[in-house]
C-alpha cells in the first residue's frame, strides 16, 4: 500500500508535534509532502502524486476550526473539479482518505458546551465532503490533542498509533494489528546493529508465540459461544 | 449600524455574482473590503476595522465546502487568539456575524443524498465556531445559488434581500422590513432627479398608506383572536 501524507504547517520547523511525527513517518515507506515548502504548486505533479497513492492523508494543526490557509490554497489549485468528478472522472475513487490533526486544546473542549462548542467530526465535515465527492473511502480522524503535555510513554504510544494510521490496513482489527506489528518489527530488526539482535529476536519470537496463544484462546472462546447458542 | 463586508474572491473582476453584489452594496452605507486586493495584511488595521463595525459579514464563493484560501489566510493572520478571546479580551462581543455565500450548484444538492451530501449549515459550522468563540451574535447564512440562471426579476429580489441582510435590524420581522423600506426609499428619493420625483413620491406615499392600512388590519385580527381566547 502506498501512502501519501500531505502536510500543511506555516512554521513546520518550529512545531514540536510536526517534527515528532516526521521522525515517525521516516521509519515507514510513505511519501511525505509539505505544501508550504513547495516553491510553486505544480498542479500536474500534485495530481500525479495523488493518483499514485492508495491512502491520502492530510496532516495539519487546527487553525480556527480548519486546516491552515496553505492547505486550502493547495486544495483550491490542485483539486480541480475536472480532476475530482468532472467529465465522468473518478481519479481518486476507492482510495482511502485520512486526516491527522493536532490541537493545543484538550479534546473534551470539542463538544457542545465545551470552550470550542463544536466536535472534531463537525470541523472535518467539509474535508470529508471533498472525499465523498471523489468517491474515496473515509478513515476516522486521527486527533492529537495537547502533544506538549504528553508524557514520554504517551508520546511513544502516539508514535505507534500514528505509524499504524499511515500504513496499517483498514478497518483496524486485532489480527491486522498483530500482522502490522510482526511485519514492522521484522523489517526494523534487519536495520539493527548485530550486537542488539539477540535481544530483539527474543522479543519478536515472544510476540509470535503470544500471538499463537491468542489464536488458541480465540478458538476456545468461539467453541464456548457455540455451546451457549445451542 | 455600521456594517463591514469582508469579501474574498481570487478573481473578483470576473465574477458576475460579486460584481452584482458590489453594485447593491454601493447604494448602502457599508464598508466593503476585498482581502485578495490587499497588498499586505495590516493586522492592526484589520482588527480596527472589525472593532469599529456592528455587523461583520464574510462574503465569498464556495470553494470545496469552505471559503477561498484568501479568506482563510486573512483569518489565520488577523484573528489572533489574543484578539478574539485571549487574556479576557472580547473585542467582538455582541457584534453580529453574517455569511453571504454563492455557489454554482442548486440548493437542493446540499443535503444528505444530494450530490454535495452536506448542508450549507454544516459547511459553515467552522466559521460559526469562530463567531461563537468571539461571543458574537450569529445571523442565518445568506446563500446565493446559481446566480447565473436567475431571471432578472429574481436578481432584483436578490438585490433587495442582500441589501436588507447587510443593513436591516435583526431578527427579520414584518415591521422591521417596513421600516427598512421606508427609510431606504426616502433616502434614495433624495438622490433622484427632480423630474422623476413626483412619481417616486406617489409610490412612497402609497407605501406609507398601505403600511397604515396593514397596522389597522393587524389590530382587527388581534381583537378577533382575543375574542377566540375568551
Task: Describe, in plain words, how this protein is organized in 3D.
The structure is a homodimer of 230-residue chains. Chain A has 230 residues and is α/β, with parallel strands linked by helices. Chain A has two domains: 170 residues, 3-Layer(aba) Sandwich (Rossmann fold), CATH 3.40.50.360; 58 residues. The first copy, chain A, has eight helices and six strands; from the N terminus they run E-H-E-H-E-H-H-E-H-E-E-H-H-H. In chain A, strands 1, 2, 3, 4, 5 and 6 form a six-stranded parallel beta sheet that branches. In chain A, strand 1, helix 1 and strand 2 form a beta-alpha-beta unit. Chain A starts with a strand and ends with a helix. Chains A and B meet through helix 3 and helix 5 of A and helix 3 and helix 6 of B.
Mean pLDDT of chain A: 93
Q: What is the beta-strand fraction of chain A? A: 5-15%
- CATH hierarchy class name of the largest domain in chain A: Alpha Beta
**Most extensive interface, chain pair and sizes:** A-B, 28 and 28 residues
Global Rg of chain A: 20 Å
Total of DSSP H or I helical runs spanning 4+ residues of chain A: 8
Q: Number of DSSP strands of chain A?
A: 6
Amino acid at each position: 500500500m502506498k501512502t501519501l501524507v500531505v502536510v500543511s504547517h506555516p512554521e513546520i520547523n518550529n512545531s514540536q508535534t510536526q517534527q515528532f511525527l516526521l521522525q515517525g513517518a521516516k521509519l515507514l515507506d510513505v511519501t511525505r509532502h509539505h505544501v508550504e515548502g513547495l516553491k510553486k504548486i505544480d498542479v500536474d505533479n500534485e495530481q500525479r502524486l495523488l493518483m499514485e497513492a492508495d491512502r491520502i492523508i492530510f496532516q495539519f494543526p487546527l487553525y480556527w476550526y480548519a486546516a491552515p490557509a496553505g492547505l486550502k490554497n493547495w486544495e483550491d489549485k490542485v483539486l480541480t473539479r475536472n480532476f475530482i468528478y468532472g467529465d465522468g472522472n473518478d481519479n481518486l475513487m476507492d482510495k482511502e482518505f485520512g486526516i491527522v490533526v493536532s490541537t493545543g486544546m484538550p479534546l473534551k473542549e470539542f463538544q457542545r458546551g465545551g470552550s470550542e462548542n463544536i466536535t472534531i467530526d463537525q470541523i472535518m465535515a467539509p474535508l470529508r465532503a471533498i472525499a465523498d465527492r471523489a468517491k474515496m473511502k473515509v478513515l476516522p480522524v486521527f486527533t492529537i490533542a495537547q502533544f506538549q503535555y504528553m508524557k514520554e510513554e504517551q508520546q511513544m504510544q502516539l508514535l505507534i498509533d500514528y505509524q499504524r494510521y499511515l500504513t496499517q490496513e483498514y478497518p483496524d482489527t486485532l489480527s491486522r494489528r498483530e500482522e502490522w506489528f510482526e511485519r514492522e518489527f521484522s523489517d526494523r530488526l534487519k536495520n539493527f546493529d548485530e550486537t542488539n539482535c539477540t535481544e530483539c529476536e527474543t522479543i519478536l519470537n515472544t510476540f509470535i508465540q503470544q500471538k499463537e496463544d491468542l489464536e488458541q484462546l480465540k478458538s476456545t472462546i468461539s467453541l464456548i459461544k457455540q455451546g451457549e447458542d445451542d
